[in-house]
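Following up on my earlier thread - several people asked me to post the actual chain instead of describing it. Fair enough. Here it is, all 613 residues.
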Amino acid sequence: CNVEIASQDIENIIQSVMRLPLGSKIQILSPIVRERKGEYKKELRKMRMDGFVRARIDGAMMDLTQDISLKKQSRHTIEIVIDRFIIKHSIEKQLRHAIDTALKFDETVVINIIDEGRDILFSRKLACPQCGISYPELDPRLFSFNSKYGACPDCRGLGVQLEASQANDGGPNDLLALNLEEHDFNRLKTCPSCQGRRLRREALSVKIAGASIGDFAGLSILDAESFLHDIPLTDRQRIIGAHILQEVRDRLSFLRKVGLEYLTLNRPSLTLSGGEAQRIRLATQLGSSLTGVLYVLDEPSIGLHQRDCARLLESLADIRNAGNTVVIVEHDEDTIRSADHVIDMGPGAGKSGGWIVAEGDPSALFRHPSSLTGAYLAGRAAIPVPAQRRIPQGFIAIRGAAEFNLRNLDIAVPLGVFTCVTGVSGSGKSTLIYEILYKALAREISGASTHPGKYREISGTDAIDKVISIDQSPLGRTPRSNPATYSGIFTIIRDLFALLPDAKARGYAASRFSFNVAGGRCESCQGDGLKKIEMHFLPDVYVTCDTCKGRRYNRETLDIRYKNKTIADVLDMTIAEAHEFFDAIPPLRQRLAVLEEIGLGYLKLGQPATTLS
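Reply from S.P.:
Thanks for posting it. Predicted structure:
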């Protein structure tokens, strides 16, 4: 009801009553029954025997010495009159005794001002003096939507509900029905109970300076800083909240320093861009105030605009200046130029790498004759800008793109050319191209079950017959996946080995040369070439299989050779070696040529995907 609640001890209650105007007529009541069905003959008789002579029953004053009959099926409220007073300076002792007596029956004391016909409620619990609702002792769990104590009971802390047409047997809020990994929020609608704020009503009714935790979480980082700066506090509140407020202000400041002042605090993490997520993790470390720590960052500039890179470097400098060590694996020019010390690895990749080409401050790197990195940074080497640009061969038009922070955009994507979509981190690039364009095309052209982001219409799709998404997701999460299997090359190689005369004579099919099925593989390691040794309390250790010596196949399979090479020998070849070896096999030659052309000639065909950068 938007009336402030508070818990008060007997001293607070006495002081509040004594502040009433002198001469005010009051009576002190204690509730013994609240809105419950029954006749309550036993309770009324006991009150009479204890010496009480008056009670307010369902709002009407009654004499307990008279016979009182209550309807059994009706709800009743019974408040015993403890004592009556006229406010004056000499009643404090009697008032204390009356209030103490009232509190023995209930946590709430009702002060009825007789002349005005109004009540003032006081409670030793957190309770509302107007509507009587009481609160448990406030606990941090009450303000967490990940806790059953704080989560909105209708949406279970999600802030959204599934549309009825999308709900499964588990009900409209069944979490299993949500596929949030695909950013698919189109099937969801805002929970009407919590209005998307994810918390139960009791939590959202607790307010500081008029704002609930839901209101505060809906602020941007910049607005949240302003709110805390201007928050009105009493001296007592300022002492109590000083440490908490400083911690929150510091964290907001760190988020602002890395350029995230526009983000709202309640922004779902699945809607963040890669650059935004990277900088939030960095701000978390900035806020830890640790010293003597070695931080290792693997290409932190990926997905960042140059403006954001500058802020990133400033934040990394702050971490270093706090007495920490920062080691970064990076290609970004500004990062290299900002480093105190540079280690240039090379000179090539794979077996051509593994050496330190140059080391020292950035200027030493620029001067080093063997450093390819230094040559580009110093301007001795450069990537030429095309002399002329291609002319588009038509367009795919998207109208009314409005997912996440996109503002009802209309855009025409040219066909037959190389198009780059750029902008600061979080400006909507991935949302526009992946969430809307790719998913819409995949659904329309390929019949995929994707759910694209909001848009009004899309046209020009008849000019293309396929859409392919290439991202940085891993090729596989086990050592069994490798460049040969992922690219489809291994299927052709196995078919080739199955066509060899010795294989035909032994009845070997292509499956014989697979390390994923029984028959041709080494059963000791089941085709992994490695054995996992489980270590209690330590990470598992992988050792080379002592049966096949890491070759993955049994002896009979390794008897089959193509140009004197076994299937294991082929998997041990680099892509460049295999390109030359299979020059007479057009399907293999073509695929291997592409892999070599994009700079992966150093990779081995059987290199586990888990070891790829």
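The two ends are 58 Å apart (CA to CA). That should answer part of your original question.
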